Amino acid sequence: MSPLEFVFWQSLASAALPLFLLLPGARLSAPLRYTLLLVLLALALVPINGLSPAMYLRSVFDDLALTTSLALLLGTAVRLGWMARPSEAQLTLLLWLFAGMAVVLYPAALGVSYLDPYRLGFAPRLLLAGVGLLSLGLLWQQHYVGCLLLSLATLGFVLQLKASTNYWDYLIDPALGTVCVVVLLRRHWRRLIP
Amino acid sequence: MSFADRSLLWRVALAPFILVLFAVAWVQHPAAVPAPFLDDHAGAPTLELSPSSPFVNGFASSDVDDYVHAAALTQLSEDTLLSVWFAGSREGAADVQIRGARFDVSDESWNAEFVLATRESTQQGLDRYVRKLGNPVVALAPDQRLWLFYVSVSIGGWGGSAINAMYSEDRGESWSAPRRLVTSPFFNISTLVRGAPVFHDDGSIGLPVYHEFIGKFAEYLYLSADGEVLDKYRISRGNHSLQPTIVPTGPESAVAMLRYAGTEHHRVLASRTEDAGRSWSAPVPLEPFNPNSSLAAALTHRNTLLVALNNLRDGRFRLSLYETDLEMENWEHLIDVDASPDPDGNPLPESSFTPALRRQFMASSSGSRDDLLGGFLAEVDERMCRRAGCEFEYEYPYLVHTREGIFHLVYSWNNSFIKHVSFTQDWLESRH
Asked: What average pLDDT does chain A have?
């Protein structure tokens, strides 16, 4: 894998940034935060038996959706103080959006029915229309983060940045879907289980 | 200008860019409509090249130390076939390799086997950890590009499989690096190959695949002539069908026969398409039994289907050839290609198993592999014998009907050799 390839940077970010965001770095000074990030990025490249940790993670989780990679980048930007954290309402809307995609996509794609929503990503015009309208709606509502995630994921699809030819693989992956579902369940489990 | 005005200006300015972006994506991605199936027997000569006898057999593989399984075969030229299979210390072991060998039709002999892919070469090509390799299939496309699709697993069992593609522009002398096909949204796992690829008029490829994770079901993966995934169509659903073998029967029609992996009727399942693979009928059970084992089918010159399968309720101790009409209603038994000496497939004590195995080996090797007998018999205990006794197994058939009118069948012979059986259309006629 060469640094000239998009997948190199994506797998590097996929390995280092989740750890950077999970570690309690908010209390660190700014220089220490940058140092921590650089150390994690370096560690993700150290070869073990010929493969880097980034490649091992890629072996398990496959290439993440572009929305996930962008969300990790935006989270890192917030942690480094480059941008403000989106409002709670905006984050909640994103949680529902990606959790909804995951719930619609994965059970049926794994064989529950003849209807396979994953096919919508191979012939994606209907999906593009829906996501396009959604992006415009998010823009109109000044939900710039949501609009950016969906638009840049679509730009990546146009440029075929991933090995996949399926639009869904740019929008959602099981890791993002699982995180969103789990966070929503944790928030609402008291209401769901009386 | 107030904040609200600036915000509105931003949104109005950005909206056209978003519209253009989605419009470009829309134009760039029309739905792929499968072309009619390729009739690769159109205008084919009949019996100009045929084996010296109407029914011949031999071993394609030549390594006696390894477990071998899941053979596939394609015709490279009028005079050459290529068979591929996986081989290693056991199924799922890290040392399993994808191997192949070429068959010279004119002198009816298999050349030395060679390695096509290893765990290490796949890992290097894919830039990811690979734990084990599995089923390969091979096919020569109408554009003369030779395709090899094979399964690899990074984590877990066969449910964690993904499909890799390699191609050769010089009929197998040199190969591209493996490339992973993205076929599933769930970490791209749980898609496997087993059945022979079919081709469409425009060179696009139809790859029969199946899932084996939460569900066990079959799909038709539709690839461009360059191996890009264009679409996929579900053949079955649920948790009871695997390993479709697909036979085009007309420009838009094809049948798919499926291995039954359920617990109800234990029979071969069949599904049909009348629109070149875009939609498939719900699978129905057929007359022959299927003991959860792979099967293979090909269209004959008589416009019937030739099917190689274990028509058994349990076990894989007999592999048979059947002929059936395109409705798959009337089944005629043609021959048992290989069978255990015990008609019920009961395990045999080693004292009677070894002589029987020796006889079967000599009858199968066609002379060219006779010198392997000693080494092979030394491996018998571990591979075929358990406490209850020793068992014969003939499984995973793969059937090809060449343009010259010869049928070629390869299958796992006691998981020790890949056996090759070929017969002519004349032989098929003589069975009636």
From this structure: 93
Mean pLDDT of chain B, nearest integer: 92
Hunting for tokens 């823009």 — which residue is that?
Answer: A139
- Give ipTM to 2 decimals: 0.94
DSSP labels, A54-77: HHHHHHHH-SPPHHHHHHHHHHHH
A128 closest CB neighbour out of B25, B182, B228 = B25
User: Which chain B positions have a beta carbon within 8 Å of A118's beta carbon?
Assistant: 184-185, 232
CA distance B326 to B335: 20
Contact A157, A167 (CB under 8 A): yes
Instruction: Work out the angle at residue B34's Cα, subtended by the Cα atoms of residues B125 and A117, and round it to the nearest 5 degrees.
Output: 75
Q: For A83, how many CA atoms within 13 A lie in the half-sphere containing its CB?
A: 12
A41 to chain B, minimum CA–CA distance in Å?
Answer: 18
Instruction: Indicate the residue of A111, A154, A172 with minimum beta-carbon distance to B238.
Output: A111
Tell me how far the alpha carbon of residue B316 is from its chain's centroid: 18
Q: What is the band of A110 on the pLDDT scale with cuts at 50, 70, 90?
A: confident
Please name each of the domains of chain B with its CATH number.
Answer: 55-430 (2.120.10.10)
Q: Contacts of residue A167 in chain B, CB cutoff 8 Å?
A: 25, 29
- Burial readout B322-351 (b: 16 or more C-beta within 10 A, e: otherwise): bbbeeebeebeebeebbbbebeebebbeee
User: Which chain B residues are within 8 Å of A136, Cβ to Cβ?
Assistant: 15, 18-19
Q: Which residues of B touch A51 (CB under 8 A)?
A: 123, 127-129
Nearest CA in chain B to A136: B15
Q: Which of B22, B31, B188 sits opposite A154 (nearest CB)?
A: B22
Which residues are bridge partners to B104 per DSSP?
Answer: B80, B109
Closest CA to B99 of B82, B113, B80, B119: B113
Q: Are A76 and A37 in contact (CB under 8 A)?
A: yes
Q: Which of B120, B129, B74, B76 is nearest to B97 (CA)?
A: B120
Reported as a single tens digit per residue, the pLDDT across B148-198 is: 999 999 999 999 999 999 999 999 999 999 999 999 999 999 999 999 999
Mutate to test the interface with A, among B3, B5, B18, B213 (most CBs of A within 10 A): B18
Classify B367 in phi/psi space as left (phi over 0), alpha (psi -120 to 50) or beta: left
Please give the model's pTM, rounded to 2 decimal places.
0.94
Long-range contacts formed by B378-381: CB under 8 A, 24+ apart: B378/B64, B379/B64, B379/B65, B379/B416, B380/B350, B380/B353, B380/B354, B381/B350
The answer to whether B231 contacts A123, with C-beta atoms less than 8 Å apart, is yes
Q: How far is B184 from chain A (nearest CA, A)?
A: 8
CA–CA min distance A53, chain B (Å)? 10
- Tokens 């390993």 belong to which residue? B243
Span B25-42, pLDDT tens digits = 999 999 999 999 998 765
Q: How far apart are CA B319 and CA B291, in angstroms?
A: 12
pLDDT category of residue B50 using cuts at 50, 70 and 90: very low
Residue A178: pLDDT over 60? yes
Written as six digits, the tokens of A157 are 């699809």
Q: How far apart are CA B295 and CA B267, in angstroms?
A: 11
- Which residues does chain B have within 8 Å of residue A155's beta carbon, measured at their own beta carbons? 21
